[in-house]
Amino acid sequence: MRNPGSNPGMAAWESRLAERQSTATSPTGDVRAHPERRGPALSDLEFPGCYARPMTPAEYEELEGRVEYFDWQAGIAFMAREPAHAPHEGPRERLGQLLQTIAHVRGSPILCLGETEIRYTDPNTGGNHSAHPDQAVYLDPRAREGAGSLYLAARGEPKPDVLLEVDSTTDVRRNRLRRYREWEFPEVWVDVPDACAPSRRGMRSGLRIYLLEAGRYALAEESRAFPTWRAAEIHRGLNERVLSAETTKVLTRVGRALGEREGTGPEDDPLLREQRAEARAEARAEDRAAFVRALFTSRGVAVPASFPSRIERSLLAGVSAEEIVSAATTAESVPDFLSRLADPGS
User: Fold this and answer.
1) Cα 282 versus chain centre, distance
2) Angle at the Cα of 17 (from 29 to 120), degrees rounded to 5?
C-alpha cells in the first residue's frame, strides 16, 4: 500500500487539494453558493486513519487496496493507512456466521454481501461517490435478485437492512455515517473491536446501533431489523473467539423472534429439518431397543451390553413396530432377531 510520505509530489498535490476544498463551499460551508458542486463536499468529511490519494475513475475501478471513500468528481480516494488485520477482519467475518445460525432458527436464509461498494450518483451533478461498508445484510435475499451491477446503488434499489462498520482503524462517525444518513440507510452498526489496531488504542470498545428516524440517526440499545438483539450482545458475539453458550442462546432467541414475525421456524430450514428428523429417528430407535431388551429379558434371552450398535439402531428405526414385536417374540437370540428384521420373510 502506498504511503503518503513516499510520493515526492504528494505535498504539492495536497496543497492543490486544500485549495480545491476551500472553493468547494462558501465560508459558512453552504454548498448552495456553488451549484456546480451541489451535493456532498469533501470539506464536509474527515478521514482519520486515512490518507488522500489522487486517483482517476479508471484507476479506482482497477485498484485492489483498501479504499474507505472515493469522490469520483474530485478524483480523490481516501485510503486506510493500516493494512487489513485480525481485529478488523474477525468481527466482519463473524457476523456472517452469527446470522447463519439465526437464519437456521428463523427457517429462511439471510444474505450477507461482505465488504462491498455503495455507489451514490448525485441527481444534481451526476457525480459519483463510493463508500465501502464491511458488511451489508439483507433479511430477504430476494431484494438482490436481478441486480445487474457488482456494487450497491444508494438510489433506486432496495437498501440493506443493516450495514456493519468495524471501526478498528478509522472513525466512521466522522465521515461515512454522515453519508449513510444522507443516503437513507435504515440501520447501521458501528463496532469498535475489543482488540483494536495501534492507531485506535484508547478507544472504548463496544457496538453502537444507529436507526434512521425522521432523516436523522438515533442511537438505540436494540436492533430494529433483528428484534430483541441488543447492542452489547451483538458486540460480544462479534468479538468472541469461540461461540459461547450464552451467545448461542441469544441467536436462537433472535431467530425465533424473526420466525414468529414471518411465520417460519426451524422445520422450514432444510438442514435443521433433516437433523431433527434424524434426532427423532434416533430417539425412536432407543425406545424400541429398550422394549426389545425388556422383552428378551422376560423370555430369558441374553442381550449383549453393546446392543444396539449404530447399525442396529438404524435398522430398528427403519422398520415398523409390528415387525419388531413379531421378531422379538419369536427370535432365539439377538442375532436371530436382527436377521428377522433384515429379512422379514425368513
Assistant:
1) 33
2) 65
User: Residue 298 is placed in which grid cell?
Assistant: 422376560
301 sits in the region (left: phi over 0; alpha: psi -120 to 50; else beta) called beta
Helix axes 86-106, 270-299, angle to 10 degrees: 60
Please state which of the ranges 12-16, 73-77, 96-100, 329-333 shows the lowest mean pLDDT: 12-16
Strand partners, 187: 211
Give the pLDDT of residue 66.
67
- The three three-digit cell numbers of residue 215, written as one number: 432523516
Read off the amino acid at residue 39: G
Report domain extents, the chain.
4-80, 86-117+132-266, 270-342
55 phi and psi angles, rounded to 5 deg: -160, 135
What integer is the mean pLDDT of 180-207? Answer: 82
Instruction: Give Dmax (Cα) for the chain.
Output: 101
